[in-house]
């Protein structure tokens, strides 16, 4: 089984794919490899026939803040030729969605593709599901963490200074995010004029401080130095792991996620 669906962009860095839910309802879902658990937005839950299970799952933001979710089951959801039945979903109130997201019904996690490999081909603007016929690339091992319905993937990356960190693969993130403890070793001065500082409060009430700077040198994957990015922008914050790689890194490649083999495959393609 293999099929190809085009993706569109939301907020420049998010990937949205067309879906068909129970009863033939067509919509789009964001494809976010860092979300952990599948989500359906509250405004769509009834129309999609989500059946509450009475269970609760508590996820965590990268800063460690708990996010409790009421869980349900979506009878079926189809992406291309892949139909998954009894999809476990968290139901989340998103409030007023930004312009351009009115038909976005939720977010798909890695867990939706637990039994079938899929490829986000950023240069070509498409998602391929099943066996990828376009040739081989550079395989990189990943560490999967499973917590109930949540699945997340981590790989090892070398940052300037040849320090190795473990980062979450998060297609829903824009720039590279690193723990603020790494700033000094990377030569990033929080007081320098070139370093931007931003303070704010997230939806849980957590106060954060973030620093933005450009790293000098390459970030590259351990064991695959050709899979790299030069002088990346980075955001620093106190988080619960070393970091996350997101869209700015991933969009250089066609990236195949093969969870059964705990492997990502990176291939450079021409759009």
Helix content: under 10%
Q: Indicate the low-confidence ranges by residue numbers.
A: none
Strand content: over 45%
Number of contiguous helices: 2
Give me the count of strands.
Answer: 24
Q: What is Rg?
A: 19 Å
Query: Helix and strand string, N-terminal first?
Result: EEEEEHEEEEEEEEEEEEEEEEEHEE
Gross morphology is globular
The major sheet is characterized as: 10 strands, mixed
The CATH superfamily of the largest domain is: Acid Proteases
Query: What's the domain count?
Result: 2
Kindly summarize this structure in a few lines.
By secondary structure, the chain is an all-beta fold. It has helices at 42-45, 247-250, and strands at residues 2-6, 8-10, 14-21, 26-31, 39-41, 51-60, 66-79, 82-92, 104-108, 118-121, 126-130, 138-141, 143-147, 150-159, 163-169, 176-179, 196-201, 207-214, 218-221, 224-230, 233-237, 243-245, 254-258, 263-267. The strands form 3 sheets. Strands 13, 14, 15, 16, 17, 18, 19, 20, 21 and 22 form a 10-stranded mixed β-sheet that branches. The protein has a 6-stranded antiparallel β-sheet with strand order 1-11-10-23-24-12, with no helix packed on it.
